C-alpha cells in the first residue's frame, strides 16, 4: 500500500507537510509531493482538508493461505525453570484477543524440565500448551530456540504470537520473524483488534515516546509482536482450569547451537528486582552528585522497594545501565513509582507510565514529571527525602 | 579482520517536540544525527581494528542525505563507507530493511564481524540486526556490553541480561548488536574530518545488489503503520502544599497511609 497525493485536488495548504511524522512530504510547484521517506502511515490522509490524499492498494505476491493460521500463542519465557511474569501478563491479554477472535489460546513452553510450569500456564488462561523439552534448552540460545519456535509455527500455524519484549524475547522474535518471513511489531504497549479488518492492532511508542503508532500485519502469518513487561496485569490464577498438553519432540542437534554460555555474572539483587518490583524509587540528576544516590537507596530500603535511575544518572556513570528506566532502558510497572529529582523527559516517562501511582519530588514546579504524578512535592530532593525517610519510619514503628 | 558496521541516520528524538495545538511532531530544526548506539558500534569496530588489524566499512540504507552520517563515521576513523539508496528501498519496515542491508553485505564478500547498535532511537525496534543475521545465516549475539577476545573461529563477548551479564562464546562470522555501556565513542579529529570529506562514498542502487525486489520497500514490508497519534497524558495529581520540606513529607506520608501504600 502506498499513499499518493492527487495533484488535481491538492490546494497547496501544506497541512500534510507538518502532520507527517517522518518529514516525507515536500511542496513542489505548490502541490504536496510524497517522497521516499514515506512509511504509508496515513497521518496526512487524516489531516488533508480536501481529501486529496489517499491510500493505493498494491498487489502483493503473498502465497500464504491466511485462513490456515488459527489461534493465539503466548511464548512463556523462562529462566532456570522459572517463568517470567511477562508470560502470564500476556496470557491475560492474549485471552482477550483469542476470545474476540473466537479462537484458542496456547502457551509455548520451551526449556529443560519445564513441565512443572504447565499447571500455572493453564491457570493463567491457556487452553493448550505446546511443550518442547530437552537439555539443549537449559539456557536460552538464539539457535536452539529459533529452530524450535519456527518448527512449531510451520507445523501448527498460529494466527498470532505474543512474546515479552525482554532481552531474550527481542533476540528471538526478529530471528524467528526473519526466518518465517512475517511481520513483527516491537515493544508494544497496547493491543486490540482492528474493527475494520479483524487483525491484531499493535500499538507502540516511537520517536522516543513522542508519538504512538498502531501497526497491522495484513498479509503475513503469524502476526507477531513483542510486548513490554509490566504494561498488562496478570489475571488471578484459576487452578481448576486444565487443558491439552501437546508434547513436541525437539529437532535441535547440539551442533546447531553456535553459541556457548560460559558464565553468568549476576548483578545486585536490587536491579534484578526492578522489573518485578512493587515499589521503585528512582533518582535523577536533581541529586546533583553521585554520593547523594545513597539517599535513594535508603528510601527504597525503608519502603522495601527497588532502586531505579534516569538516563542522565546512568550516562554520568553514577549507576550501571541495568538500573536505567526509560525508552532505552527498562520498562517498569510497579504499584508505586517515586521519581526523585527526575524532570520527566518523555523518554523516561515511556518506561514508567504504566505505574499505578507516581510520586514526584522535584524543585522545579514546571517539571513535566508533575503532569503525570498522582502526588507531587516541589522541593529540593536533598531535603525532602531525608524528611520522608523519617516520617515513614515514624509511621512504621507506630503501626 | 573485515568488520562492517550498519548505521542509521535518525532525527535526534531528544529534540523532537509535539506541537500542542496540532498534536503533530515538530520536525523543524531537529538535527539529523548518527544513531547514538551505532556510534558505539563504530567505536567497537575501531577498537577491534586497533587490536587485530583489518578494515572497518560502514554501511547504511537511506536517502542521499544519509551520506552526512557516513562521513561522520569516516571522520571517526572508518576506512570505507557505502550507502544503499534507491526509491525501491523507500518505506521499508524492519524486515524489508534487513533484506536490503543483507544484500549489501553479501556484495561486500568476506565479512568476519558485523556490528549494529542495539536499536535506533527513532523506531526503537532492535529488529534489523537479528534479521540481517538470519538472512546471512550467521551467529548473532544481541545486547553486547563487552568484547573480550576474537580469533578466527570464535569470539567471546559479554551480553547484557535482565539479571546481569552472560559471557558467551560465539562461532564466527558473527553479528553483534551493542549497548551504550560498551564504550565511549571517540570524537572525529580535524584530520579525520578532512580525510572523510575527500573520501568518495559509493551509492549502491537496487540494481547494484542481488535481491528479490518483492522483498523491498512498502511491497516487501509485512507490517504497515495504520495510525499515528500522540500519547495521552495523565490528569494532574495532588501537589503537597506546605511551607517546609518536613511538612510536605509528613503530608505525603499521610496520603500514602490513607491509600494503604505504607
Quick structural gist:
Chain A has about 400 residues and is of the alpha/beta class.
Quickly list its features.
heterodimer; A: 399 residues; alpha/beta; seven-stranded parallel sheet; five-stranded parallel sheet; 22 strands; B: 262 residues; Rossmann fold; nine-stranded mixed sheet; two-stranded antiparallel sheet; 6 helices
Describe the structure in your own words.
- The complex is a heterodimer of chains A (399) and B (262).
- In chain A, 27% of the residues lie in helices and 26% in strands.
- Chain A is α/β, with parallel strands linked by helices and 399 residues long.
- In chain A, strand 8, helix 4 and strand 9 form a beta-alpha-beta unit.
- In chain A, helix 5 (142-156) packs across helix 6 (169-180) and helix 8 (293-303) runs parallel beside helix 12 (381-398).
- Chain A is globular, with a radius of gyration of 24 Å.
- The mean pLDDT of chain A is 92.
- Chain B has a single domain, classed as HUPs (Rossmann fold, 3-Layer(aba) Sandwich), CATH 3.40.50.620.
- Chain B is built from six helices and 15 strands.
- Chain B has helices at 36-52, 67-76, 94-108, 128-136, 190-198, 245-258; strands at 2-7, 9-11, 17-19, 24-26, 32-34, 55-61, 80-84, 113-117, 139-150, 154-161, 164-171, 174-178, 203-204, 224-229, 238-239.
- Chain B has a nine-stranded mixed beta sheet, with helices on both faces. In chain B, strands 2-5 form a two-stranded antiparallel sheet.
- The interface between A and B is large, with 108 and 93 residues.
- Strand 17 (259-266) of chain A pairs antiparallel with strand 11 of chain B.
Number of separate helices of chain B: 6
Largest sheet of chain B: 9 strands, mixed
- Overall shape of chain B: it is globular
H and E order of chain B:
EEEEEHEHEHEHEEEEHEEEH
Distance between the termini of chain A: 63 Å
What's the architecture of chain B in CATH terms? 3-Layer(aba) Sandwich
Give the biggest sheet of chain A: 7 strands, parallel
- The level of helicity of chain B is 25-40%
CATH topology of chain B: Rossmann fold
- Gyration radius of chain A (Cα, Å) is 24 Å
Largest interface: A-B, 108 and 93 residues
Strand line-up in the sheet with most strands of chain A: 11-15-10-5-8-9-16
CATH superfamily of chain B: HUPs
Spatial order of strands in the largest sheet of chain B: 11-10-9-12-8-1-6-7-13
| Multimeric organization | heterodimer
